[in-house]
Design brief:
Elements lengths: L1 H6 L3 H14 L7 E2 L20 E2 L1 H14 E4 L2 E4 L10 E8 L3 E8 L2 E9 L3 E6 L6 E6 L4 E4 L1
Antiparallel strand pairs: 1-2, 3-4, 5-6, 6-7, 7-10, 8-9
Helix pairs in contact: 2-3
Length: 150
């Protein structure tokens, strides 16, 4: 749910889904429980062993949802911080991979994107939804080249 909300650029909904997952479906050792451990009714599944049937794939989906909140990279367009909830005024990431073999780093402070850098691993055209201009920037990059924005 968090990944879908992030893909739809709904940061508040994504963050809420992540909080519910962490509070209600995560065991002490950080594994995912298939039942609602909180008893708040988030799931109809309940195990006689207090939800101890666990899996790992949901934890990977949790990480992907955070990635999707920090960096969108779909249909050839890179967008930093597309689904950040209001309470995440400060956030940063280094070298998240985007479509087209681009490594992206960005920093957000006080609710505004302050810096962004893109390194091309294989060269090609890079399209970015610029947080600085509000438009789409497009430029050609050579393999190994890094572009700093703004």
């Amino acid at each position: 749910l968090a990944a879908i909300a992030a893909r739809c650029h709904n940061g508040a909904r994504a963050a809420r889904a992540l909080r519910i997952f962490a509070d209600a479906f995560t065991l002490r050792g950080s594994l995912h429980s298939n039942g609602d451990l909180s008893g708040r009714g988030y799931s109809k599944m309940w195990c006689s062993d207090y939800g101890r049937i666990f899996t790992l794939e949901a934890n990977m989906a949790f990480a992907e949802a955070v990635h999707e909140m920090l960096l969108s990279s779909h249909n050839g367009l890179i967008e930093p911080f597309p689904a950040i909830p209001d309470e995440w005024e400060n956030a940063s990431f280094e070298n998240l991979r985007a479509e087209g073999a681009f490594l992206v780093s960005a920093e957000r402070s006080g609710g505004r994107t302050m810096r962004m850098s893109i390194t091309s691993e294989s060269g090609g055209t890079c399209r970015v939804a610029s947080p600085f201009t509000g438009g789409i920037s497009e430029f050609s990059m050579r393999p190994g080249e890094t572009v700093e924005l703004p």
